[in-house]
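Dear colleague,

Thank you for sharing your sequence with our group. We've completed the structure prediction you requested, and as agreed, I am returning the results in plain text so they can be pasted directly into your records. Please verify that the sequence below matches your submission; if there's any discrepancy, let me know and we will rerun it promptly.
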Amino acid sequence: MINLQSFRHLLPALLAFSFIGLNAQTSFKTKYVNSAIYTGIEVGSKGVKLSIVEIGKGAQEQGAFNILKDSSVNTDFISFTPASFTATLNGLQGLYNAAIEKYNIPSGSLYTVISSGVKTEAEKLQKTDMVQMLIDSFRLRINEPKRMVEVVSVVDEARLSHLGIVPDSRRYNTFLIDIGSGNTKGGYFPNGNTKDFKLFQVPWGTKSTANAAEKKLGDDNTLLNFNRQMYKVLQQAENTDIVYAVNASGGYPLSDNIAFSGGIAWAVATLIRPDMIDNAVISVSFNEVMKFGEKLYTNHASLKDDVLLMSIKENTKTKAAWAKEIQRVHSVFDQRSLMSGAGLLIKIMRQFSSIYESKEFYLVKNGQVGWISAYVDKSVK
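Please find the predicted structure tokens below.
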């Protein structure tokens, strides 16, 4: 479906086309010399996300991505109520108009999709007609009756994420796992080609884990009880879902690198290595993440920006930028959601951690926009 080689041959033409609009985008500070700017708008379970991304010429080989703008509107679309439908439609149109009018993104460089999470929930609740109604209403609102708004499957989304996030040099020995809010999905290419993809999925995510623990609290809402109930939820998830999914994937002996993406991967990476905020990917050990998980419960205050940056010697301007990113993590994830997401991450990592064979673990921060690169390639093809 996606021919990376063809994309590389066509990239100069794509870049030339995209540079037509680059001069108008003076608000963006680009990172690469030879690059193009693309925008992805995704309707997800929680709302609508917009990502404006600079894609460098060596994106597929080296992972050359630079997030220029990242915005979202929380609309709770999967509740499938008239109010959430209207809020999602307004959010979708608003972000589209902002990309076109405020940031001067050409319509041809803007991609719109409906996530697999929405597709799965809509099918389960027999609400696929509402998804189609959203697409039709959006096309009408922006006066683009032929605009492509693809409803992606779980397999396609996982596959696109792998193609967009993992560099070519590690394509066939990397197992990519995306931890979302409601579920976890990913996979790898087992046969040395990008046609055959082995899907990995677990019906647990950061939010669903936290919600399951909250439901078990009863009258005791203390952090101590939450930690106890969260442990029970994760233990059950590990025994009934995670172990089976890892074994069924057959990925352990074929994958040297285990990469994690998703919001919790970004949060953990930012808090574990605040001095590497500019790095899109960081390497971590299983024990390192284990200790971090313990600290989330026992000493959460030590992960605030002023404490984390206290021992790092850097100029004031740099530390201010780092502090802002750390603050952004805490604005997205409270203590309990961090504990839940990190706990799920640890349970999955544990399945790939062995005293007999060492796997390399990576946390990917820009996973939410990696699909854009692969989607551009697919569209060109």
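Summary note from our side: Residues 292 and 299 are 10 Å apart (CA to CA).

Kind regards,
the structure core
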